[in-house]
User: Which sequence fits this backbone?
């Protein structure tokens, strides 16, 4: 009887910890920007409507939540999720910050993904939803960065 009770109490904890993955996405733009500067990496900004935008959810499911993407993106960029949910309210400060980012990056549709180098304020790539896989997408990010013109040495 005690064994059944223990199993009943701890089984949900085991399931929840096993199913929870560490998110690679920051939601704090300023901290992520500072990290991007420190690491000399661009940022990958994902403007999403997580609880209402079908194409955002599809992009998240098919690409951004894949293990290969999650395990390698931080080698290439600093990922930032800028969310605009409709069914839940963001804290007022976060909502205002996201609105400012939306205006700054001229986002007019969801999803919008921007590969951005904050060191020289350069947008390396901007896209919406398209079908791809992690390997192709990560290769494209690397190619976009390596094809960026380098500043002349002083």
Assistant:
């Amino acid at each position: 009887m005690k064994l059944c009770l223990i199993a009943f109490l701890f089984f949900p904890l085991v399931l929840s910890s096993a199913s929870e993955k560490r998110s690679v996405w920051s939601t704090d733009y300023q901290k992520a920007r500072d990290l991007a500067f420190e690491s000399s990496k661009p940022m990958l900004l994902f403007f999403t409507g997580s609880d209402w935008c079908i194409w955002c959810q599809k992009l998240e499911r098919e690409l951004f939540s894949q293990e290969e993407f999650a395990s390698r993106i931080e080698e290439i960029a600093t990922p930032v999720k800028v969310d605009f949910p409709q069914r839940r309210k963001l804290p007022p400060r976060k909502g205002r910050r996201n609105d400012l980012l939306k205006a700054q990056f001229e986002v007019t549709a969801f999803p919008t993904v921007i590969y951005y180098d904050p060191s020289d304020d350069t947008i390396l790539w901007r896209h919406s939803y398209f079908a791809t896989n992690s390997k192709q997408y990560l290769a494209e990010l690397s190619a976009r960065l390596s094809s960026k013109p380098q500043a002349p040495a002083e």
In short: The domain at 24-144 is CATH 3.40.30.10 (Glutaredoxin). DSSP finds six helices and four strands in the chain.
